[in-house]
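User: For a benchmark we're assembling, each entry needs the component sequences followed by a predicted structure for the full assembly. Here are entry 17's components. Please fill in the structure.
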Amino acid sequence: MGFVRKWVQIVFGFVMNGYWAFPFTRNIYQGPLKVICAPGLNCYSCPASTTYCAMGALQQLMAGIRFSLESGQYYLGGSILGSLGVLGGLFGRMVCGWACPFGFVQEMLNKIPSPSFSVPRVLRFCKYFVLVFMVFLLPLLVVDEFGGGSPWFCKYICPAGTLEAGLPMLILQPDLKSTLGVLFLNKFVIMIMFVGWSIVSSRPFCQTLCPLGAFYALFSKVKLIKLRFDEAKCTACKACHPVCPMGVKFNESPDDLECITCLKCMNQACKFDAIYLEIGGVSVGSRRNLAPVARENV
Amino acid sequence: MSAKNKKDKLRKAPLYVLLFSLAIWMLGVASGEPNMVLQQAVQICLSCIGIG
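Assistant: Structure for entry 17:
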């Protein structure tokens, strides 16, 4: 199943970044597909990006909400939040584990042989702060003399934007180098920090700062597809603890907000069928009744 | 109710979430929001990528 997940991640990465004419146009994709919400964190200023980033679009909307209201247009983020709600209601943070390009990048970096460190659990709360303040409140409330706000998360933090868009655009449009300043340095340092951290820890950005992951986590209890725990079958062997890329102790907190439904605990750890997958309340499989091919690829 | 039946009891919460989300999405679409999102998404956001 790990093999399948990797290919799903690759396919999503290519679908969300499927504009390969950018080396010739030296610009980003500007076609109609950009009206579609990217399920994962994928900067829409990435030259290859074919979809829009929900977090980026929400911040832009919050930043310009005064202008739209003044002009009689009620752009309150319904289409963006609705898209995220559908994805969250169906999959929750499974999107992080299966469809997020930046999550995939972190997983690949973590495969580099190195000492391994867990991410302090207290840092996981930071992403909710980022979601509330840097995506919604600060772009909405902190405005310049003209009444416009800024996309705080994108502008000051997002390492995905620096990696997927900032650096490629500097290569494609060298004239932009003259505009580099403290802002870029700040974001570049953050990006390098997360690249390094990803080598020694599993998915550090997902665990600590990702506002999209924080949003999807809100659907943890009500999402359609989720991993369930059968307490009667659990032997408390704790085999599910070390395999989890998000540091979840599944037998202790089956509805943990951090679970990205990567299925590692079910496929690679639990030998007692205490962890199983369900869709809308109906059990659809556990380790024992997985297809043999999928099990061989775990 | 047996353990198996309990386990396989259909959950309605995801359906409500999906319906609510679809309703919000439709309201957003009806207000013309996708056009505004498209206008933003086809431009390079310099501050987003840390330049300018």
